[in-house]
Amino acid sequence: MPDVLTAADSETAQRRIAGSLRERGLRAGDRVVLSVPGSADYVSVVLGAARTGIVPVPLDPRLTAYERDAIIDDVEPALVIDDPEDLAALLGGEPTELDDRPRCRPMHFTSGTTGRPKGVWSGLLTPENAAALVEEERDLWGFHRGDRHLVVSPIYHSAPLRFATGTLLAGGSIAVLPVFEPYAFAQAVADLRPTSMFCVPAHLQRLFTWLDEHDSTLDTSSFRLVAHAGAPCPEPLRRRAYDTFGIGVVWEFYGSTEGQFTACPAQEWLDHRGTVGRARPGRVVTADGDGQLWCAVPGWARFEYWHAPDKTRSVWKETPDGPAFTVGDLGRVEDGYVYLDARREDLIITGGVNVYPAEVEAALADAAGLVDLAVFGRDDPRWGQRVCAAYVGDVDEETLRAIANERLSPPKRPKTYERVASLPRTATGKVRRTEL
């Protein structure tokens, strides 16, 4: 059973962590890489760093050395924490003063069409923007002192970390499941009586399947908020969630590592079937002539891609509502409600994890005997999508699998490989992934 971390205990830990980082010579603007499994202490480290202006860089601890080393070379961190004992040692510093609020957002890494992971960097925040960022999340999700937030998703992802830190900053408490297993989740709900959680549809699918297999029920009366995002949620699964947790409890939101677009309570989805909600307060979502969605954001939600000015310029534009960004998704806006028609075709979402074909293709490109390769997603009843690969050449499947195991973390490794005579391409040479 996970331990409960209160805001008061976390505050004490954060002050010691900030002291440890300063003792190691880190100052505002420096970066600290966190490549360890999630825990309550992990959340305190993120807050202790960010409240002194030191930038946390959360990484999936399952990344291979091939993946992790490229990011570390790019981000030039002052400190790398890749051992849980090193993380725990940060709690032994001399306490020091902290800002009231985080002075920066964590720098999460995302890939995309280029296959090269990019850091989403928001810079150091002014005191006014730091306050606005915290207040925006608190106002939207209702974080308060009485909350007990159960973390069920990997904490190095942006959404679960944002909900956990928001709860602690509001005076609430958190508990972190090391991994999501339906039985452990049910026990945590029964014993800890959490008030909120963030999850992805794959969690709900696994939970409901387990409940049915064991002819079991779950007392969810303690929850005031269950937020889900990260992948499309099929209507039967969505309605089961409404029945299990309550229509007044379940929310969906649409966003990305780069920023948040919308939020949608269950009743609004029922009233406007298929929507992902209205723009969050302070934002304006529009669709251009090609159906690409853009989101105008306030100053505290601006970002750039670390060391990638050309890529940054390509995703921002000036609009009558202010600077707006896109992540390439297609949709429409009707009477203020946003509808997501299609995720960009270069994105596979498996179990709530974004996998970009270009990154997988780049990792496998130098396999001896490989002539051509395309990675794509297929529907999967448990994970939403699974990663697949079609290839041309004399290379054998075992070789491709061995390279993938060496260079790619588990969610990115193709689950099936299919040798084909040629890949379907457009007249300009672009792979038709939808045909695959």
Write up what this structure looks like.
- With 436 residues, this protein is of the alpha/beta class.
- The chain has two domains: 4-246, 3-Layer(aba) Sandwich (Rossmann fold); 348-419, ANL, C-terminal domain (GMP Synthetase, Chain A, domain 3).
- Helix content is 32%, strand content 25%.
- The chain has a ten-stranded mixed sheet, sandwiched between helices. A four-stranded antiparallel sheet has the order 14-15-18-17. It has a three-stranded parallel sheet with strand order 3-2-4.
| Structural class label | alpha/beta
User: Any idea what the radius of gyration is?
Assistant: 22 Å
User: Biggest sheet, open or closed, and with what strands and sense?
Assistant: 10 strands, mixed
Quick check: average pLDDT? 94
Spatial strand arrangement across the major sheet: 1-8-7-9-10-11-12-13-20-19
Overview in brief:
The protein has helices at 7-23, 40-50, 65-75, 84-89, 127-141, 158-169, 182-192, 201-213, 235-245, 266-271, 309-315, 357-364, 397-407; strands at residues 4-5, 31-34, 55-58, 79-81, 108-110, 118-121, 148-151, 173-176, 196-199, 225-228, 250-255, 260-265, 277-279, 284-287, 293-296, 304-305, 316-319, 322-325, 330-334, 337-342, 348-350, 353-355, 370-380, 384-393, 416-419.
Label this structure with key terms.
alpha/beta; 32% helix; Rossmann fold; 2 domains; GMP Synthetase, Chain A, domain 3; single chain; 436 residues; ten-stranded mixed sheet
What secondary-structure arrangement, pairings included, does this model have?
Elements (H helix, E strand, L loop, with lengths): L3 E2 L1 H17 L7 E4 L5 H11 L4 E4 L6 H11 L3 E3 L2 H6 L18 E3 L7 E4 L5 H15 L6 E4 L6 H12 L3 E4 L5 H11 L3 E4 L1 H13 L11 E4 L6 H11 L4 E6 L4 E6 H6 L5 E3 L4 E4 L5 E4 L7 E2 L3 H7 E4 L2 E4 L4 E5 L2 E6 L5 E3 L2 E3 L1 H8 L5 E11 L3 E10 L3 H11 L8 E4 L17
Parallel strand pairs: 2-3, 2-4, 7-8, 7-9, 9-10, 10-11, 24-25
Antiparallel strand pairs: 1-8, 5-6, 6-16, 11-12, 12-13, 13-20, 14-15, 15-18, 17-18, 19-20, 21-22, 23-24
